[in-house]
Design goal:
Blueprint: E1 3-6, E2 8-11, E3 14-22, H1 39-68, H2 70-73, H3 75-83, H4 86-99, H5 103-119, H6 124-127, H7 129-145, E4 159-163, H8 168-173, E5 179-184, H9 192-200, E6 204-206, H10 211-214, E7 220-224, E8 229-232, H11 237-255, E9 272-277, H12 283-288, E10 294-298, H13 300-304, H14 312-325, E11 331-334, H15 361-367, H16 369-382, E12 388-392, H17 398-417, E13 426-432, H18 435-439, H19 441-444, E14 450-453, H20 455-463, H21 481-496, E15 500-503, H22 513-520, E16 524-527, H23 532-540, H24 544-554, H25 560-570
Parallel strand pairs: 3-4, 4-5, 5-6, 9-10, 9-16, 10-11, 11-12, 12-13, 13-14, 14-15, 15-16
Antiparallel strand pairs: 1-8, 2-6, 3-7, 7-8
């Protein structure tokens, strides 16, 4: 009997194959609470497990290098960093020495603490880093317990893997000739498993919650990695095969748009398509997909993947690497956006009733100018190597922006006095993610070189709804006319002073949103790198006039449904 499911389309493509159930017994089931009498002997076991895990990770890095290229293989550099993190290792050893915990119990308790820290974060990119800690710690735990580690490279027939989650280690082993797709209860588009699946061009649907218990070994499954649709024992296999054929044709067509200019049907050439990145590891995908710049580089990864506030030199090296690789295309780097859901293991934020509205982002850095100055100096030094935009997050008032900009310009003067070169192609801008900033955009535009709209926060602050809460998730409405009006205010306010506006929220890459944003006058669209060819294709099929007429009508709508119906009626994508 046919059953259908809906998940998060995380790596596009159509796949039809038998289910391969990957349902390992949780490693915690093997952990005992036995106390130990010889801490030194147990610490030797920790060191042995670390060495064995290190050997595994280096082997996986070689496999990933061959299959996925240098940038993706660097995921395992990050895993080796987690493995060798002195804070994590010290925490494990302290539990053994002080609490007399056995090696596996100590490892489990420490990894759980760090996994929960990442899982509590709202930012999808950092939330998914919990999977990296889980991957490394599970491998280390299995070595400490003497458990078998499954090798997915040995799969010898065409299958779709069904699992609770797939770790980067497991994904790197997959052979696309045999593994036609995978389905997971957990995960989303920003997980490493999804990123690697896209590199391997393996369709993936994640966040299915119960798929592991809903599917049996050997059942035929059809999946759409773009829409997130899954059908077990499909009623009409021919329809799926036709979809697969159509997808393959479209995929070939989209390749033509990778290195094409971004031009509308009527010849308008001023829209810019850029990429969002979370670390230096993401650059290869940016370049492979024909990005015209980086619209958002989340600098906080340098702070969160660390045991201390990163030094000026550490930051400068990372920023310079990205700017140089972009070879003359602009890189927009967001200054430290920490606090709220994003914590640091080495810094204690004050307890607040509502940290999302509290001491975070620009509020934190303006208060801790010692930390801010280190970052600003590194950014300004890196600006000598190519076009750079410095972008401040969570700006609410004109005074806040002016203070941050003045601090940056004062630091620039200090560097120049020291004889350090600062780039001439430097812009200083701000995120628009607080409704107060959108409403007051024309005032901010007197001082800011550019705006970048963070739609994820703008929507949740406008609707007073936490987008991570299932109970109010229905209020996360990017197409609500009220949100479109805030976007219009922002864009018009910037254009009044001849400043440009980008968008780095999820909305920028959504096919239904692109025509609306074109019509509203957005200048730059920043999205996941793999979304760029499709976005460029959509833009090429539309005239500026028809998108402007669409946006005008959408602003008169009352509901999200009316707006989406209008898009589908007017624009045939």
């Amino acid at each position: 009997m046919s059953k259908t499911f809906k998940g998060i389309g995380s790596s596009e493509g159509i796949a039809i194959a038998k289910a391969y159930i990957l349902n390992e017994q949780p490693v915690e089931d093997f952990i005992k609470n036995d106390k130990i009498s010889d801490p030194e002997k147990e610490i030797e076991k920790v060191n042995k497990a670390i060495e064995e895990t290190k050997t595994d990770l280096k082997k996986l890095q070689v496999i990933a290098l061959e299959k996925l290229g240098k940038e993706k293989a660097e995921i395992f550099e990050a895993h080796l960093s987690i493995l060798e993190d002195p804070a994590i290792i010290d925490d494990i050893k302290q539990l053994i020495k002080n609490d007399k915990l056995n090696v596996s119990k100590a490892m489990f308790d420490v990894s759980k603490k760090y996994i929960e820290m990442f899982e509590m974060m709202e930012d999808a990119y950092f939330k998914e880093r919990a999977a990296d800690v889980r991957d490394v710690s599970e491998r280390m735990l299995k070595h400490s317990l003497g458990l078998r580690i499954i090798d997915l490279a040995n799969i010898s027939e065409e299958v779709i893997i069904v699992a609770e989650d797939l770790t980067p280690s497991q994904t790197a082993q997959l052979n696309p000739k045999m593994v036609k797709g995978f389905l997971c209860n957990m995960g989303g588009r920003t997980s490493h498993a999804a990123i690697m699946a896209r590199s391997l061009e393996i369709p993936a649907v994640l966040g299915l919650k119960t798929i592991l218990s809903d599917v049996k070994e050997g059942q035929l499954i059809a999946i759409d990695g773009l829409t997130g649709d899954v059908e077990v024992e499909p009623k009409d296999k021919k329809t799926w095969l036709k979809k697969q054929e159509e997808f393959n044709v479209t995929k070939e067509e989209l390749k033509k748009f990778i290195n094409k200019g971004t031009v509308t049907k009527d010849g308008y050439e001023d829209f810019v398509l850029e990429s969002n990145i979370g670390s230096t590891n993401d650059i290869e995908s940016v370049l492979e997909n024909g990005s015209e710049g980086i619209g958002l580089f989340r600098s906080e990864f340098l702070y969160m993947n660390n045991t201390h506030f990163p030094t000026e030199e550490e930051q400068f090296t990372a920023y310079k690497k990205v700017i140089e690789k972009m070879a003359g295309k602009i890189t927009i780097i967001r200054t430290l956006d920490i606090g709220g859901d994003k914590k640091l293991s080495y810094f204690e934020f004050p307890h607040e009733m509502n940290p999302f509205l509290g001491y975070r982002a620009i509020r934190f850095t303006l208060d801790r100018k010692d930390i801010f100055k280190t970052q600003i100096r590194a950014l300004l030094k890196a600006s000598a190597f190519g076009p750079l935009g410095i972008m401040f997050p969570m700006i609410a008032t004109v005074d806040e922006f002016k203070q941050a900009k003045e601090f940056t310009l004062e630091t620039k003067k200090e560097l120049e006095k020291e004889g350090i070169k600062v780039g001439k192609d430097l812009q200083i801008g701000m995120m628009v993610e607080i409704p107060a900033a959108a409403v007051n955009a024309d005032k901010f535009a007197k001082y800011s070189d550019f705006f970048s709209v963070g739609t994820n926060d703008l929507i949740q602050y406008s609707m007073a709804a936490d987008r991570m809460s299932e109970n109010v998730a229905y209020l996360y409405q990017p197409y609500n006319p009220s949100i479109l009006k805030l976007l219009k205010l922002t864009i018009d306010g910037a254009h009044k002073h001849k400043k440009w506006v980008g968008m780095c929220g999820e909305m920028a890459g959504e096919p239904n949103a692109i025509p609306l944003l074109m019509g509203l006058g957005l200048d730059a669209f920043s999205m996941s790198a793999t979304s760029i060819p499709r976005a460029r294709s959509i833009i090429s099929k539309l005239t500026l006039k028809e998108t402007q007429e669409l946006a005008e009508k959408a602003l008169e709508c009352e509901t999200t449904k009316e707006v989406l119906d209008l898009v589908k009626k007017v624009i045939k994508l």
